[in-house]
Specification:
- By secondary structure, this protein is an alpha+beta fold.
- 26% of the residues lie in helices and 36% in strands.
- The protein is built from eight helices and 16 strands.
- It has an eight-stranded antiparallel sheet with strand order 1-2-8-7-6-5-4-3, with helices on one face.
- Helix 3 packs across helix 4 and helix 5 packs across helix 6.
- The longest helix has 24 residues.
Length: 357
């Protein structure tokens, strides 16, 4: 696109490029995506694709109308992880498949009070390009131009536009990766359990609450459960081994996490199993067909919406499971929701006490 390398518009380190302010009234991002541009353009303009990635971490999108033609409109609602809804309107000005989109965001009284123009370009990058899929990379450039510096600053400060764009393109990358593979997840045929919560606390503090022994002991577990003792070895291959004590006498249960991935302060991946006092693996004490191992992925993202805070998303799936174990896991989602709701309530209470300290 014209002026893509103008002074003040960052363009370095495009492979993992992050959004940033540019000039007096712009937000700009350039990133190299490991997918052909035909697929990326389709992901940006097909409502079935868009619903799976559009928006920052924790957001979902409901489209009521999407007409990707010059003069056509896209009306949609973004549902924030805190329960807030954001009405949005996009009007397409230019559509050049699969190279370029230009659209106006906002401009209607019934939607969020924002108004800016976006130019998105999709350029073949490196060897093996082409529009038929299979290989090739794409240089994606997003340029958001606001009527004034004050208008840009309002959207950045009120809606977290810079971080929101980073997270949205990150979700696009994840969607593209899933669209290019036939794998169905950690356990083929199993349904992944997902829960999301926004906490009124900075991300670093929330991450510490999940990764420091003394902090975990103060909140982890459903309501009424305490952690009287635990050990924590925070490293890939390390173990969090804990005892959970219920309100009834003699109701102690042991569990453990074996860490696979630790990306501070963004992500934790660990294998969960019931345990014994010595740290071995054991079966669920009341459900013998519960999977012996489950995989938890916990992500921590800045809440790119009104109010700020941290979005925590817990994804939980059965691994190395038999068909019977997968069925028990799939049938337990309602009880998982209750258990995690109580556990995250306790985390919210702990973080609130830290804020007052």
């Amino acid at each position: 696109m014209g002026g893509a390398h103008d002074k003040g518009r960052p363009d370095m380190n495009a492979a993992g490029g992050r959004a940033s302010l540019a000039g007096d009234r712009e937000v700009h991002l350039t990133r190299i995506l490991d997918s052909p541009r035909e697929l990326i353009f389709r992901a940006w303009t097909d409502p079935q694709h868009v619903s799976r990635w559009w928006g920052p971490r924790g957001f979902t999108t409901t489209t009521s109308r999407m007409d990707v033609t010059p003069g056509g409109v896209w009306r949609f609602v973004m549902h924030g992880p805190d329960g807030r809804d954001y009405e949005n309107l996009i009007t397409f000005l230019e559509v050049v498949k699969p190279e370029r989109l230009v659209y106006r965001h906002g401009g209607d009284k019934a939607v969020e009070p924002v108004n800016f123009q976006v130019t998105v370009t999709f350029e073949e990058h490196g060897e093996g390009g082409g529009d038929s899929g299979g290989g090739g990379k794409t240089r994606l450039t997003v340029r958001m131009v606001f009527p004034s510096g004050a208008a840009r600053d309002h959207v950045v400060q009120t809606y977290g536009a810079v971080e929101g764009l980073n997270q949205t393109i990150g979700r696009l990358e994840e969607h593209l990766a899933s669209a290019s593979t036939t794998a169905s997840g950690p356990a083929s045929g199993a349904r992944e359990f997902v829960t999301t919560r926004v906490f009124d606390a900075p991300r670093d503090l929330v991450f510490k609450a999940w990764t420091e022994r003394e902090r975990l002991m103060r909140w982890f577990g459903p309501k009424g459960v305490t952690i009287p003792t635990c050990t924590l070895d925070l490293r890939p291959g390390g173990v969090f081994h804990y005892c959970m004590r219920g309100p009834e006498v003699g109701a102690d249960m042991w569990g453990k996490w074996v860490f696979r991935e630790i990306v501070r302060p963004e992500r934790l991946v660990f294998v969960v199993s019931f345990s014994d006092e010595r740290g071995g693996m054991s079966r669920h004490p009341f459900m013998p067909d519960w999977p012996r191992e489950t995989l938890s992925t916990v992500t921590f993202a800045v809440h790119a919406g009104k109010g700020g805070g941290t979005v925590v998303t817990v994804r939980w799936a059965a691994i190395n499971a038999t068909e019977a174990e997968r069925k028990v896991f799939d049938g337990g989602h309602e009880s998982m929701e209750k258990g995690w709701t109580g556990t995250l309530d306790q985390l919210a209470g702990y973080l609130g006490s830290e804020a007052k300290a």
